[in-house]
Each structure stands twice: as C-alpha cells, then as structure tokens.
Amino acid sequence: MKYKRILLKLSGEALMGERQYGIDPVRLAEYAEDIKQITNLGVEVAVVIGGGNIFRGVAGASNGMDRVQGDHMGMLATVINGLALQSALEDADVPTRLQTAIKINEVAEPFIRRKAMRHLEKGRVVIFGCGTGNPYFTTDSAAVLRAIEIEADVILKGTRVDGIYTSDPEKDETAVKFDNISFDDVLRKGLKVMDTTAFTLSQENKLPIIVFDMNTRGNLLKVISGENIGTTVNL
To answer: How many independent structural domains does the chain possess?
Structure first.
C-alpha cells in the first residue's frame, strides 16, 4: 500500500445517493464496504464528512439566519452523518470511534488528538464530526486540520467527479482532466479544489490532496494502492 494513514473527506451530498436530501442507506453501505476493504489491508482511516445533505450554514445565512447559529446547525448535521457512517461501518464489522469538536458526550467522544491516533493504531476508523468546532470554517478546513494533527500521509477527497478539470465537466464537454497538478498551478488557474483556507493550510504543511470519484466501487482501494486515478495535488 502506498499510504499507511489517510484522511478521507466526504461531502454530505455524497451520502444522498439518488435522493434529493438526507441519507441513502445503499450508498452508505457501499462506502462502508470500500472502507472495510482498505482497513483489512492495514490502512489506518480517519473520515471527515460534511453536512450539506441536511443543513448548510451558508445557505441559512443567505436566508436571513444568523451565520453563527447556522454554522452550529451545520456542525450538528455532520454528527448525524457521522453516526450514520459509524452504524454502517459497524454493520460491516469495522470498529469505529466518533469524535466531535463540540462535546456531545452521550453520542460521541470529544476530539482528543492522542486518543484519535491511538484508535487509528488499533485499527479503528475514526470519524471526526462538528468540523473544527468554530463557525466560519468549512469541513474542508476541518479535514486538512485533522489530517495534519493525526499525521496522515494524504487527504483523499471523495467526490462524484473523477478528478480536477480545467472547468466543470458536468457543464463543459471540452473540460480537460489533470492527472497531477501543483498547488501553485491550482491557485494560478483559479481551480476549485477546496476552499482557500483549507487549500492554503494543506500547501503550507506539504500535505498532498487526491481528488477522485468515490462513487465508483473499488476506487478507494486503487488510490491507496497508488494507481493513477483521480487528480493528485502536490508541491
């Protein structure tokens, strides 16, 4: 395996499957099986999930809601998704721990870096909920921050698109996919990989990002094995 410890970033929208909102149990079970496949090979896996399938703070703020309140609601949405993924993983006999940046002791452990790393060493999948615990920060920023804290080898951003393109491939048929691209080139070309805060943090800490299609079964294993699928962003 090319990577020993990974941080997998999933969007909340990815959990919807073919639905318009909420969580698709079929998609959830598929993700759990893909994660189990790599944990069986000894890969240590941490996961950060967004909450956009349930509530998005920015959207709430645009409709007149207080942004801080909206972001806190979004954090709670990530806990719902984290609990759902935890349940799916445990149904697949994968041991897990859910840690949250905001204390919700009845349903999850508080985030403690040393504890999280110990869980990973013992082969447990650690799911991080509530983003960074702060409003105005996205779950992309949380993913990069947690990846740095747990000393992950790489951030894997699982999306419904198979990499980074010159423009949106769902809207532009002439869009060209990059196999590899530097952080500087992403910024120069104005490509959207993560929000600026998350992307800059990843660049400063020399932490590579791989964007790939998580909805194709077996792709997670291919990425871990070093196959050239998706797009790798590196120095």
So the answer is: 1
